[in-house]
Amino acid sequence: MESTRKQLIDLLKEQDSHISGQQLSEALDISRTAVWKHMNELKKDGYEIEAIQRKGYKIVSSPDKVSKNTLQWGLNTKWIGQHLYHYPQVESTQDIVHQLAKEGKPHGTVVIADEQVKGKGRMAREWHSPEGKGVWMSILLRPDLPPVQAPQLTLLTATVLANVMDKRSALVPSIKWPNDILVHHKKVAGILTEMQAEQDRIQYVVLGIGINVNQEDGEIPSMIAHKASSLKMESGEKWDIQEFVQSILSTFEKTYDSFIEEGFQEIKQEWERYGYKIGEKVTISTMRRDFKATLLGIEADGALLAKDEQGEMEKLYSAEIHWGEGGYHA
Ligand code: BTX
């Protein structure tokens, strides 16, 4: 059922003119009544479908609504989002993907929700995920990589989000180490990477992406309003969530495939291009000392590289960084 719907969407997408029920039924190897039933399901999703006798079906307009169909419609990817689950409300998309991973669902499976009531941040923090206002999605990855390389996937995802925001708006996003996306010094997106691994191989990774998209002034909880914002609040424009998700998924697929083929170097450069305060001086507190240092970039293991005032290099894995401007702290 699921793959037939996907094939039907693909067939209609390829067509500029009408395509007959007969052609569809032959191509999909289902009865014409089944074709008609699928069409009705698409209409329920808000597609406007023109049905003309002896000519067939044609999509007249696609809905401005997030659903499995609207997301897969026009999604130009080979493996990501080919298995896609959309829910109006969930506790957390992360948990659902863990479950699907255990059931053996493939690399690239995506779960997206309109609302999360128990959205998770890192280290058991909460992630506010109000209905219809953002992208709350998790991606299942089954990379053939050793666990030490998992942080690279998080850094890769941050570059994908920054790239897509950059391309689709006049906003200038930056990536605050390790992986928050900031616009005008405020956090608009976060990434949560969870992994199941054996000693030397990753079994699977659940990559959670949370982006504040269409919240308005006053819709960010007051506790975090000083350090969090949405793309709409910063750009002054409402964003089309469905198109935004499609472009994240297709950019993700391209970036991931070239990362697997060519390695981390390109990601590192992209990350540093968007890196928040890279090349600038900040104050850093570690277990050993407090010091001023210039941030230089990232290392292949995900560490942040800094140079102190005596010229000594420090690789930081966990440290408190006093970012200064905007008073941002995680
Ligand atoms: P984080 O630990 O970096 O950020 C969590 C912190 O950010 C919170 O403690 C709070 O201060 C602040 N915060 C909470 N909600 C928001 C928000 N909507 N916008 C900005 N700041 C906020 C970042 O964790 C990782 C977030 C991943 C979220 C995705 S959504 C899909 C998937 N499902 C799920 O449950 N989590 C991931």
What does this structure look like?
By secondary structure, the protein is an alpha+beta fold. The chain has three domains: 2-61, Orthogonal Bundle (Arc Repressor Mutant, subunit A), CATH 1.10.10.10; 68-274, Bira Bifunctional Protein, Domain 2 (BirA Bifunctional Protein, domain 2), CATH 3.30.930.10; 281-322, Roll (SH3 type barrels), CATH 2.30.30.100. The protein has nine helices and 14 strands. The strands form three sheets. Strands 3-4-5-9-8-7-6 form a seven-stranded mixed beta sheet, sandwiched between helices. A five-stranded antiparallel beta sheet has the order 13-12-11-10-14. A two-stranded antiparallel ribbon has the order 1-2. α6 (150-168) packs across α8 (241-262). It starts with a helix and ends in an 8-residue tail after the last strand. It binds ligand BTX. The site of ligand BTX has 28 residues, from α5, β5, β8 and β9. Residues 69-260 form the BPL/LPL catalytic domain. InterPro entries: aa-tRNA-synth_II/BPL/LPL, ArsR-like_HTH, Bifunct_BirA, Biotin_CoA_COase_ligase, BPL_C, BPL_LPL_catalytic, HTH_11, WH-like_DNA-bd_sf.
Keywords:
alpha+beta; seven-stranded mixed sheet; 330 residues; single chain; elongated; 3 domains; BirA Bifunctional Protein, domain 2; 32% helix; Biotin_CoA_COase_ligase; 27% strand; binds ligand BTX; SH3 type barrels; Arc Repressor Mutant, subunit A; disordered C terminus
